[in-house]
Amino acid sequence: MLAPDGRVILISGANRGIGRAIAEVLHAEGYSLSLGGRDLASLKAMSAGWDAAPVHIARYDARDWASQRAWVDAAAARFGRIDGLVNNAGMHSAMTLRMPDEAELDAIWAVNCKGPLNLIHCALPHLEASGAGRIVNVSSMSGKRVRNDHIAYNMTKHAMIALNHAARRIAWDKGVRATALCPSFVRTDMTAASTALPPDAMTQPEDLARLVATMIALPNNAAIAELLVNCRLEDTL
Questions:
Q1: Could you name the CATH architecture of 8-229?
Q2: How far apart are CA 205 and CA 132, in angstroms?
Q3: Would you call 60 a catalytic residue per the annotation?
Q4: Comparing C-alpha atoms, which of 40, 204, 169, 58 is closest to residue 119?
Q5: What is the per-residue pLDDT for 196?
Q6: What is the DSSP string of 66-92?
Q7: Residue 218 to residue 29: CA distance in whole angstroms
Q8: Strands, E, within the chain: which ranges?
């Protein structure tokens, strides 16, 4: 397993839910973190009591590619390296084929697909230089099968799977490994409004965070392309 000492991980959408849990677990393990989001005050408050491993806070807006380049450049300037990227920021949509909305479709495509793609593009030279760069793309079981009519969300999560495999291919020979994390229902604010499943029956963000920590620490010859995480028995196709 790769030791966390000195390794720098970028996490988008780290101020709540899955992203926050990932940040807390990786910080506890000793990684240096760069946390990106639109709510800088929330990120600063969350990390205010942290000590030991350093933390960098930066603006990340999935719809603003200039902010993404600025974040990556600032993190590289601060730490001198980037070893991992967790594409966690995302949004949900209940849009269906019977009630399409172009603006909503454009928005979710920008947040769930275009932003993560550009972040990988910006970080890739640093991940290649690491020799053991890691990318975790937080997708969903909705990227593996279609079980409801939320077409916009399902489309973007399928696209995230495709993006993940493109990232795996593009720099494999330089030690970059990418994993698509595909949970079903996770106990978050976003999920609470989309299912009647009791919160305690859902996968907990902290458990996903521990899985992410394991994937980031795996050596180059033990890569995981996709990790499907179920909170209940369900088909995966």
A1: 3-Layer(aba) Sandwich (3.40)
A2: 25
A3: no
A4: 58
A5: 77
A6: HHHHHHHHHHHHHHS---EEEE-----
A7: 14
A8: 8-12, 32-37, 55-59, 84-87, 134-138, 177-183, 226-229
Instruction: In whole angstroms, give the CA distance from residue 64 to residue 81.
Output: 23
Quick: pLDDT tens for 217-230.
999 999 999 999 99
Question: Is the CB of residue 157 less than 8 Å from the CB of residue 164?
Answer: no
For the stretch 54-96, pLDDT in tens is 999 999 999 999 999 999 999 999 999 999 999 999 999 999 9
Show the tokens assigned to 227: 């990790």
- Per the structure block, which two tokens stand in for 190? 């976003």
Give every CB contact of residue 184 below 8 A, 6+ residues apart in sequence.
140, 141, 203, 229, 230, 231, 232, 234
Mean pLDDT for the stretch of residues 114-127: 99
Q: Look up residue 169 and give its two tokens.
A: 């291919």
In this prediction, residue 192 carries a pLDDT of 67
State the pLDDT at residue 235.
Answer: 82
pLDDT given at position 195: 76
Catalytic residue, from 10, 153, 177, 202: name it. 153
Q: For the segment 165-205, what is each residue's pLDDT rounded down to a tens digit?
A: 999 999 999 999 999 999 999 998 777 666 778 989 999 99
What are the structure tokens assigned to 220, written together? 């180059």
Separation between Cα atoms, residue 127 and residue 81, nearest integer Å: 8
Q: Is 181 helix (H, G, I), strand (E, B) or coil?
A: strand
Best CA proximity match to 22, nearest among 78, 123, 31: 31
**Distance separating alpha carbons of residues 91 and 8, to the nearest angstrom:** 25
Residue type, 191: T
Torsion angles phi and psi, residue 186, rounded to 5: -120, 145
